[in-house]
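Recap quiz, item 2
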Amino acid sequence: MSNIIAQTQSPSPSPSPSPSPSQRLDQGPMIKLRDVSKWYGHFQVLHDVSLDVRKGERVVICGPSGSGKSTLIRCINRLEEHQKGEIIVNGIEMTDNVKNIEKIRRNIGMVFQSFNLFPHLNVLDNLTIGPMLVRHMKKKDAEELAMQFLEKVRIPEQAQKYPLQLSGGQQQRVAIARSLCMQPEIMLFDEPTSALDPEMIKEVLDTMIELADSGMTMICVTHEMGFARTVADNVILMADGKTVESGTPEEFFGNPKNPRTRLFLEQILKH
Amino acid sequence: MTTQSQHAPKMATPLEPVMQFDPNAKVPFAKWVQKHLFTSLWQSLMTLVVAALLLRFAWFVLKWGVIDAVFYTPDPDVCRAAAGACWAVIVEKHRPMLFGLYPYDEHWRLVIMMVVYLSTIVASLMPKLWNFKILIPLWILSVTSIGILMFGGVLGLVYVPTSEWGGLPLTMILFSGTVLIGMPVAVVLALGRRSPMPVARGVSVVFIEALRGVPLITILFVAVNVFPLFLPAGVEVNKLLRITVGIAIFFACYQAEVIRGGLQAIPTGQYEAAASLNMSYWQTTRKIILPQALRISLPAITNHIIAAMKNTSFVIIIGLFDILTATTAVMQDPLWRRYYIEAYLFVAAVYLFFGYALSLYARQVEKWINSGRI
Ligand SMILES: Nc1ncnc2c1ncn2[C@@H]1O[C@H](COP(=O)(O)OP(=O)(O)OP(=O)(O)O)[C@@H](O)[C@H]1O
Ligand SMILES: [Mg+2]
């Protein structure tokens, strides 16, 4: 079984929009995946995937449908269980231990393709419910925090509305704000823009770019190659449950090593 | 003919197309009549025949129920002589029908009890008062006063054992007991059935399937006659309480399946979003899943609650008379037994009043939910 370990220690610091990666990414890996494998029944979705993500690093994962991108990032906060290999976040290994899962999840926010806002709660309550229940914040403090993040995603005026009364782009920005209210160190994005109409994609990407500029550690599954080019420190291509290519945007787009990457880029850039 | 919808649906998700059909759209009456009743010769003919029959029936009801009816007389012979309905039977017999075997001189206590009961229920149904600081004292106060009124034995009131309770107050007590005990049990059973823990799931499945599979009367027989055999000697649980719990558990098994339907309708994304916020199982269940599941299943829940109102008649098996069985008993009176139709129409009207009030309220709750008020 051949596996190509993602090389994330970008050795040649290349020009990048915000502070140079060597400055930003000086600590050791915050997320460490070692030979992670997962099966659905007899079907192996992930084949010995290894990946390091350092604090402040921005990783974009792309790849054809069904290649296991969602499964991979969902393993990182235990929405899926991996069967082999190690997942270590902030030095804590992901095991069956509920305490460990809680500790790891505390540091990870997640944004879904279908937003998954709570439809029976208004925007403000969607944002405050986590801080109040999980972090035991007082209602007033939680609301203040929520309003701060709603300002950040530029929809403070929608606080009293219900999710289904908002546009898709607004809903996704609420979802981002909801995750941020838990003040995580890591954000996972699973195709956050692919359920959106084209004119709404930009507003969500802008929010994500701002988040990246603020130094958030991010792993984004997305097919927005423009976003990958400007924001990513590391772009990864997955195919058939393996990471087949990994490198800086320059390497990834300019000089892909694997023919599958070329094929994928040709297909996706045609559109 | 196109009709413009008056309230455009406010909520359209990107996934659902906007609904064009609006059941509340207004159509001019004349046009409606023409379109639905007189499009073809055959249809016009049918319309006329049906209209004639309806008019005939309406005339019969008017003649029997009003024109030829006797509204008041203490003398059954007057009714006998009349061609129409004998509403006098209700005037004559309303007290045993409404209050059953409860001592005649103490009926005033039941009147106060019903006022207290209904005001408490009405108050509890208003979203404005949904606040534990108001509801808990209110319920403590009214349950205590209802207890005092029904049992007596204090404050100079004559003691009335549960074996003498009856009529509408008994129906009310049984009905609220059924719902208040049954709903929480139903929620627990529904959650248990979908629990990740095999033991909880197994127990719930067996419980629900076993009890749904037998007739209510069997469960009540067990509650009344078999259950006491398992109690240590000297311990006795009130018969009325036992039967209330029996009815409530039967109700809960059906309601649990309804709630399970609602739980199944919640997309997994909701669980995942809650998990990614690090919410625990119970936090997720209480704050995210149940509120949505109960909203989804509200129409079916209401349906079972209304049905439960009529199951109270089963208390007859412990010799208690709710409003329906009390009426049956009263109608044994040879002087008045001919007029059982009038008496049952009266009972039907009482059931209809409460049943319709419940369904109106449920409809209002759905409106509140849709407009985001609750
Ligand atoms: N719950 C499941 N049970 C069985 N197979 C599953 C399950 N979830 C995903 N799979 C399979 O695992 C594979 C990887 O799925 P995954 O959702 O991770 O792909 P993806 O790369 O995110 O694809 P997409 O771009 O379409 O979102 C697919 O072949 C899918 O059919
Ligand atoms: Mg996916």
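DSSP finds ten helices and ten strands in chain A.
Strands of chain A lie at 29-40, 43-54, 58-62, 84-89, 92-93, 108-111, 186-190, 217-221, 234-239, 242-247.
End of item.
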